[in-house]
Amino acid sequence: MRAAMAAAEVGDDVLDRDPTMRELEERVANLLGAADALWTPSGSMANLIALMHHLERGDTFLTPAGAHVLDNELGTAAWLAGGMPRPLEHDAGPGKVSPSAVRRAAAGGGPYFTLRTTLLCLENTHNAAGGTVTAPDEHAGVVAAARAAKLKVHLDGARLWHAAVALGLPPGALTVGVDTVQVCLSKGLGAPVGSLVAGSAEFVTEARRLRKMLGGGVRQGGVLAAAGLVALDRIDRLAEDHDRARKLVAGLRERGWQVGSPQTNIVLVAVADLAGTVARFEAAGVRASTMSGQVRLMTHADLTDADIATALDRIGPVEQSKPGNGGSSGARLRVGRDRPTVRPAGA
What we know:
Elements lengths: L1 H5 L12 H14 L3 E5 L2 H12 L5 E5 L3 H4 L4 H4 L4 E5 L10 H8 L10 E7 L12 H13 L3 E6 L2 H8 L12 E5 L10 E5 L1 H13 L8 H11 L5 H17 L3 E2 L6 E5 L3 H10 L2 E2 L1 E3 L2 E5 L6 H11 L15 E4 L7 E3 L3
């Protein structure tokens, strides 16, 4: 990836486009079944661009509870896009909403000062629900309900590659009917930076203006786009991460931990003492994070089967009381991040 970045053909993407950046945008648009796509520095910016395009100030938008646009983007949906978020409970499974829930929430009527609902923002996979996957039939039902209610649809597909691999389908099979979609190149694919937002040619023309407004224009963007092109060649290997997540879960259950069944590469562990457990893992040399009131562990490209075995040995049984048992020295194994895996202790 670094060699590709060093050798990239570049231009000025702010003025007359960068050739490598354009190659990446066209390739992603084709993968997603969209007319065009635009590179952005982050998924948060890509989502914000879509929401700014779809919403007028004061509009309400619907999205599953715990969605990234609600809880992890510093309120920009309201602050900059001017939208009033309305979270929907997961009535169709973790991370999922039903067509009937969309219909009820989108129902119009009332006096002129009634909030106007204009957008449905979906997420596949749903990160906070543990990387849960929405299948094409489920997606189609919810999108059809939104269309019947005259709502636009944006799909936060930062982890869409994971969903596609888990289902054995091309990514474009999971974007049918949406107006816009965001995908991330650093979520499991290994690029250091970059997401794309895709839609119609008219949308991308406006999105390019919005990106500049938000400070997201780059000059010789081909250096970054080259990393994205290499990342796209790694989509199929996400199946290895999913398989290692299942191995991690099996090992944790053998040791008495309460763990859900992952559909992708996110493993959520239910514990009584969240902060204490994370501290215990850290002391043992396993770096974890928290999500939805649980400990989050993630498998990724830098891990091997041997790393999973090492992590399980360091974590130990659930009843183990002393933090650090199982190896508090040596290398720290990072299974709670998408990025680098092992570093010297204290580095």
